[in-house]
Design goal:
2 domains, elongated
Length: 203
């Protein structure tokens, strides 16, 4: 009985060795050459990292500006609104001048220790070399430079083609929200405001 148990344990250990070796081989240890490829990949991602960090820093400020724009007409006297708006813009610029570099520099510092291990773990040295060949090619760099122009062209035509349909839906949404909140619709959308009141006829 004891002999059979020992035999089963030995068999299990023997069967486990190839599986363990296969697991170890599926994730090859990193090499200096591979680490150099990873560093090149991270360097290529720098523009994307900077754009992401800028968006993260700007988003809360943009939300605050939207709320301020909505509150300003109701809380500030008309003759002071322009001065207050300029003050808000100055405050926002000060925040962005300080926050954007702070977030950007930290993102660039974190990229090697966060993105680097993921690239090292999930890509082989050969795969990284192929990716770099593509990303560093003149054709891809040319395509990348044109991405802004292509996006602008699409956006311009999209706005032209959808403006009439979207504006009507926005006005309907504004009217529906105003009705739920018990707020009068904007004067510009009221039919009576389209033309001045008729003067009584003179005799």
């Amino acid at each position: 009985m004891q002999k059979n148990s020992l035999s089963s344990l030995a068999l299990a250990l023997v069967l486990a060795i190839p599986a363990h070796m296969a697991l170890a081989q599926s994730t090859p240890a990193s090499t200096p050459a591979k680490k150099a490829l990873v560093a090149r990949m991270i360097k290529l991602q720098r523009p994307g990292v900077e754009a992401m960090s800028r968006a993260m820093a700007e988003e809360p400020a943009a939300q605050m500006l939207e709320r301020a724009a909505a509150v300003l007409p109701a809380r500030i006297e008309p003759d002071k609104q322009e001065a207050v708006a300029k003050g808000i813009q100055a405050d926002t610029k000060k925040y962005l001048d300080e926050a954007v570099p702070l977030v950007r520099d930290r993102a660039l510092a974190l990229a090697p220790e966060t993105v680097g291990p993921l690239l090292d773990k999930n890509f082989s040295e050969a795969e990284l070399s192929k990716l770099l060949s593509l990303l560093e090619s003149p054709e891809y760099l040319k395509y990348q430079k044109m991405s802004g122009e292509m996006q602008a062209a699409l956006q311009t035509q999209l706005v032209t083609d959808t403006r009439s349909g979207v504006e009507g839906k926005l006005k309907a949404l504004e009217a529906a929200i105003s009705a739920r909140l018990g707020i009068n619709a904007p004067a510009a959308s009221a039919p009576a405001a389209a033309a001045p009141a008729a003067k009584p006829a003179t005799k």
